[in-house]
């Protein structure tokens, strides 16, 4: 029996409807029904029954409902007690510039709010550099796009980002592609690109996608600094293929850039939360990992992280 099953059951009884509970819990109704079925199977008794007016608890369900409420209240109190224990220590975490542009400040605020005595060391660098730092035990946590180089990492799939063709709004190098108009890789065979060098994970992903589409656009520049790369794009030296988070670095992005989602299937960037193994992470590191996951999920679900989808 899991706490989440208790939460699901309690919410169904409170709302009197499976569909309303699924909407409130941000679940597919079939998944919610499946969890309740498992709970009933484990208890060997029927907890809910359907009526013309909705879902109501059986006699056993009513008794279980009161105890479940009490259990959840105790669980919430346990969480609060743990959070108020003034966890301390130091945590080093790595974020790529694009991830930091969206996640950075919400993460810092959440850590300050939940664990004010934990000292943070944040490194923003290209993912290849972060991989080396994590392998060298100079980072506790990092959000990475290539998890094949890990040495005893704990890897938690986090989200995937759709990729966009980004170009200058004032000096577009592909003027036939309008802002927010979906585009296919086959249309970009003559568009000069500005990309990171070959050691960067995004470059490999993008070029492999172009190869699958049978096109090879000209490479105008290779720039391994995202701020410089985006300035070159804004100046009209070429276009780039990046997640939307690349333009989130700029408060005036709508004035300087135009972007078009790449509509080809599987043109995505997968991001995973990688950390030292659980037995190596300090309590502060374990807590920070939970906060990072919570923040990323909240940003995606609220729509603030444009183009991102959670990995279930």
The percentage helix is 40-55%
Q: Which structural category fits the helices and strands?
A: alpha/beta
Low-confidence segments? none
What coarse outline follows from CA principal-axis ratios?
Answer: globular
What is the total tally of β strands? 12
Please report which band the strand proportion falls in: under 5%, 5-15%, 15-25%, 25-35%, 35-45% or over 45%.
15-25%
Q: Based on the structure, what is the oligomeric state of the protein chains?
A: single chain
3D architecture notes:
- This protein has helices at 3-15, 18-25, 29-43, 59-83, 97-114, 127-135, 201-213, 226-234, 253-256, 283-301, and strands at 48-51, 54-57, 89-95, 118-124, 141-144, 153-168, 193-195, 219-222, 240-243, 257-261, 268-276, 308-310.
- Helix content is 43%, strand content 22%.
- It has 312 residues and is of the alpha/beta class.
- Strand 7, helix 7 (201-213) and strand 8 (219-222) form a beta-alpha-beta unit.
- The radius of gyration is 24 Å and the shape is globular.
- The mean pLDDT is 89.
- Strands 3, 4, 5, 6, 9, 10, 11 and 12 form an eight-stranded mixed beta sheet that branches. Strands 1-2 form a two-stranded antiparallel ribbon.
- Helix 1 (3-15) packs across helix 2 (18-25) and helix 1 (3-15) packs across helix 4 (59-83).
């Amino acid at each position: 029996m899991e706490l989440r099953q208790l939460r699901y059951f309690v919410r169904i009884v409170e709302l009197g409807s499976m569909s309303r509970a699924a909407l409130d819990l941000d679940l597919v109704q079939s998944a919610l029904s499946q969890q309740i079925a498992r709970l009933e199977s484990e208890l060997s008794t029927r907890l809910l029954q359907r009526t013309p007016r909705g879902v109501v608890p059986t006699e056993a369900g009513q008794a279980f409902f009161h105890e479940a409420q009490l259990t959840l209240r105790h669980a919430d109190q346990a969480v609060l007690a743990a959070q108020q224990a003034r966890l301390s220590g130091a945590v080093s975490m790595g974020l790529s510039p694009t991830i930091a542009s969206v996640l950075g400040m919400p993460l810092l605020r959440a850590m300050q709010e939940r664990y004010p005595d934990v000292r943070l060391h944040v490194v923003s660098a290209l993912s290849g550099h972060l991989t080396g730092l994590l392998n060298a035990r100079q980072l506790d946590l990092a959000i990475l796009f290539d998890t094949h180089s890990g040495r005893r990492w704990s890897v938690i799939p986090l989200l995937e980002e759709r990729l966009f063709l980004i170009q200058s709004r004032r000096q577009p190098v592909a003027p036939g592609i309008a802002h927010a108009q979906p585009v296919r890789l086959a249309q970009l065979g003559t568009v000069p690109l500005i990309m990171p060098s070959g050691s960067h994970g995004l470059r490999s992903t993008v070029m492999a996608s172009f190869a699958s589409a049978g096109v090879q656009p000209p490479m105008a520049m290779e720039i391994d600094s995202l701020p410089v790369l985006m300035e070159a794009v804004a100046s009209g030296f070429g276009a780039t293929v990046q997640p939307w988070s690349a333009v989130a670095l700029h408060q005036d992005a709508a004035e300087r850039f135009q972007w078009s989602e790449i509509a080809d299937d599987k043109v995505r960037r997968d991001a995973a939360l990688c950390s030292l193994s659980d037995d190596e992470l300090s309590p502060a590191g374990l807590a920070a990992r939970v906060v990072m996951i919570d923040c990323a999920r909240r940003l995606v679900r609220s729509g603030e992280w444009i183009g991102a989808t959670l990995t279930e």
